[in-house]
Amino acid sequence: MSVLPRPNGRAGGNAGGDARAGARRPSTPRTIAFDLLTSVLDRQQPLDEAFERHPGVARLDGRDRAFARHLSATTLRRLGQIDAMIDHALARPLPARAALVRHILRLGVCQLVFLATPAHAAVDSSVDLCRHRGHLAHAPFVNAVLRRLAGEAAALAAGQDAARLNTPTWLWQSWSAAYGEEHCRAIASAHLQEAPLDLTPRCNADASLLARLGATRLPTGTLRSVAHGPIPELPGFAEGAWWVQDAAAAIPATFLGAVQGQSIADLCAAPGGKTAQLAQAGARVIAVDRSPARLARLNDNLRRLGLAAESVCADVATWQPEAPVAGILLDVPCSATGTIRRHPDIAWLKSAAEVASLASIQERLLRHALTFLQSGGRLVYCVCSLQPEEGPGVVNAVLASCPDIEREPIDAGDVRGLTELLTADGDLRVLPCHLAELGGMDGFYAARLRLRPSLALP
Known about the structure:
alpha/beta; eight-stranded mixed β-sheet; 17 helices; disordered N terminus
């Protein structure tokens, strides 16, 4: 295989040049997928954010939008495997200056191997992408690499350790240390599959709604649907029969117990799934979030569902209620490594250093929230992270220095008998491989804390 050509004394072009080249032509699903991959891997922008902000997305019809999103997400989900195949096909490594050409190859390999695109279509569309994004001189190189892989990729993929290749080393080491090698591998394997659509019903969902959604009821009570298409067009959406919420994310709000008539603060509340759960249970909910846009989305969801809560746009790190509250649900900002099934970009955006920084913020938020809890009140701390530093690490640090606070263990009855979701300390620890036979769940951690009666924090 020849080395990468260097047209006009340069290789790979630049992001600005690519944007200008793309602006001269209408966006296609593949050019948008290329732009999304560039945004995530080169500019460290979350995939969903890049997708929402791309000006070409709105010009595509629903099917093409879905394909652009699916192609970019699958490329990120299988990035380790794809890069190994590309490297196998090259006589020497691609230089760093060829990053944009590598993105084109990545999208081509993804189509060849993981989207079952006919070889001629995957190759031709990748060559065309070179033209659209200002890399015409590299089209013969892209053509040669993909044509070679078209005949070898299936065999190469069959021999790969997919779970290990698609998991960054720092995550693999962290999960192996925390959960053991077997569970680490099971977690990584679960991430290779797209997450299903989970719904929390507004009331007891009847058989008719389940049939229309093609849904089954999980042991946790969540509805798991096989329905496809835009969420607002699914049965029951307009009448507020349900809201989208992963099965694991729906568990922690129940740990506050009977909340009817009680004042409950839902901190870092948007997009509002847990707020809706608490409001539906009869709580007087104060939903606090610092993002006006996310809070507006929360309010829109509550209106659709016919539920009510007081919403407050404020920084949870400094906000104080007018009076102490009976319960607090604190879902802190985190690395979100438990949601890689839904957001495969997270595996390539986060780092161990960021986890350490987030853990410090989380501990500060937890300590602040405890200052406005009523005597005897409960606080549920939760994160959609698999990293122990962000879960038990934070909780244990607070417990060690706050004698007025005690852990209130979660028991089998709190998780409908699913004792595999509980730790030895009595915390919730959901892994993506739990309920694997039913499609798995997001990774989640939660601990229930209590302010000892008749005591108040200074």
